Write a sequence for this structure.
C-alpha cells in the first residue's frame, strides 16, 4: 500500500476556500487503485491542512498522477487556496496491532500522525493505524492512527503526535464499494 501525506499552509482568508476545494476531490472514489482519503485541520497549527491518502500501490498512484490528478485539481480551484504544500510518499510496513486503518476511515474523527525515525506501537483505544516507511529516506517513518474524539488523549508515556488533525467529514473520500 502507498500512503500519501500532504500538508498545506493556508492564510486565514484562504481557509474556507481551501476547505470547499478539498470537498471537490470526490471523483477519487471511482479511480482504480484508490483506497481512501481523509483530512482536516491541524489542532496545533490552525492554518495547516493535513490530508492522508491511500493507494493500492505505486503503479496505480502514478497512473492517477499522469491521467486524473490535474483535471480534478484544476476543477476544484484549489491552486489558489494555499501558500505552501508538502507531499511525502510512504510504503506501508504494517498495520498497528492488526487494526487496519482502512477499516477505520469511515468512523475516525481525529487523525494522529508521527513522522519519526522509529516505528510506533498501538494503544487500546485506537480505531486503526498504519506504520509506513518513506520512499525517499529509508530511516524516515510515518505512523498514522485514527481515533474517536473522546479517545484521542495522549497517554503520558507516549510521545505526543507531530500532527493531531480534527477530520472534516466533507473531505472524506472512500473507495466506492468499501475499502476492502
Amino acid at each position: 500500500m502507498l500512503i500519501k501525506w500532504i500538508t498545506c499552509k493556508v492564510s486565514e482568508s484562504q481557509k474556507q476556500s481551501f476547505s470547499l476545494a478539498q470537498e471537490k476531490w470526490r471523483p477519487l472514489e471511482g479511480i482504480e487503485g484508490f483506497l481512501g482519503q481523509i483530512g482536516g485541520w491541524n489542532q496545533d497549527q490552525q492554518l495547516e491542512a493535513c490530508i492522508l491518502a491511500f493507494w493500492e500501490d505505486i503503479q496505480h498512484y502514478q497512473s492517477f498522477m499522469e491521467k486524473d490528478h490535474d483535471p480534478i485539481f484544476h476543477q476544484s480551484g484549489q491552486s489558489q487556496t494555499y501558500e505552501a504544500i508538502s507531499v511525502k510518499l510512504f510504503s506501508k510496513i504494517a498495520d498497528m496491532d492488526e487494526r487496519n486503518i482502512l477499516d477505520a476511515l469511515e468512523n475516525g474523527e481525529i487523525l494522529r500522525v508521527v513522522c519519526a525515525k522509529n516505528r510506533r506501537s498501538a494503544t487500546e483505544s485506537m480505531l486503526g493505524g498504519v506504520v509506513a516507511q518513506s520512499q525517499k529516506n529509508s530511516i524516515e517513518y510515518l505512523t498514522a492512527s485514527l481515533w474517536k474524539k473522546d479517545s484521542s488523549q495522549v497517554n503520558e508515556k507516549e510521545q505526543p503526535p507531530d500532527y493531531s488533525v480534527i477530520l472534516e467529514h466533507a473531505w472524506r473520500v472512500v473507495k466506492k464499494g468499501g475499502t476492502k
Summary: Strands lie at 2-9, 34-42, 48-55, 84-95, 110-116, 128-134, 141-147, 163-167, 173-174.
